[in-house]
Amino acid sequence: MNNVVIIGRLVRDPELKFIPSSGMAVANFTLAVDKEMSKEKKSEMQAQGKSTADFIPIVVFGKIAETCANFLAKGRMTAINGRIQTRTYTSNAGEKRYITEVLASRVEFIDWGDKNQPGARPQARPQSNDSFPDFTDDDIFQPTDDDDIPF
Questions:
Q1: Is residue 126 part of a domain?
Q2: Residue 116 burial by CB count (10 A; 0-12/13-18/19+): exposed, middle or buried?
Q3: For the domain that residue 12 is a member of, what is the CATH number?
Q4: pTM for this entry
Q5: What UniProt keywords apply to this chain's record, in alphabetical order (predicted)?
Q6: Overall number of domains in the chain
């Protein structure tokens, strides 16, 4: 089974392209996914200038690609479900190169808001108590007479 679920933050805005032969949209972006480690180890690595995240390339096709390009931006937290794909190509120098990436079949936006405000948190809906009357404990809890208890 080849199934991947990751949550991370976009390293940069998605890059949207269209396949010339079919016109299908393709979006590419990279997610920074925190490595699992203790706080002490993380602090030590940061002090040494080492990365505490893995950088995972993501590829999305079709309408999802267009949606990602329109609504995702650098710094946004995103959940991805997909599969790992490895492909090869030959560089201009004649070297065989490998690329490992995640082909996303599902993308969930964890941060919402204006695309121009990276890292924005979802805004809570305003709470309204207009539909609930004010009750006191005396209204809800009535004293019980011993004759009303069935045992």
A1: no
A2: exposed
A3: 2.40.50.140
A4: 0.69
A5: DNA damage, DNA recombination, DNA repair, DNA replication, DNA-binding
A6: 1
